[in-house]
Amino acid sequence: MNPCGPNAKCLNTIGSFQCQCPDKYLARDGNAELGCDRAAVDVYCLEQSD
After folding, report:
1. How far apart are CA 14 and CA 47, in angstroms?
2. Would residue 1 count as lying in a domain?
3. What tens digit of pLDDT does each residue of 1-50 get?
């Protein structure tokens, strides 16, 4: 039984678990336990320079 929502991956931790969305997916309402939906556009991280 997977406690995480659709498309989310369950990661075992000591005494608990975490739900994580795969690349290019976003957590529903910021909570992967509710599920992960494919992002409408590709999301890229930008490196900031000082």
Report:
1. 33
2. no
3. 778 989 999 999 999 999 999 988 999 888 988 989 988 765 555 566 65
Question: For residue 40, what pLDDT is reported?
Answer: 73
Q: Please list, residue by residue across 24-34, b when 16 or more beta carbons sit within 10 angstroms of its beta carbon and e when fewer do.
A: ebebbeeebbe
| Structural domain count of the chain | 1
pTM: 0.65
Strand partners, 20: 9
| Beta carbons of 34 and 15 less than 8 angstroms apart | no
For residue 48, being part of any structural domain is answered with no
For residues 35 and 22, give the distance between their C-alpha atoms in angstroms, rounded to a whole number. 11
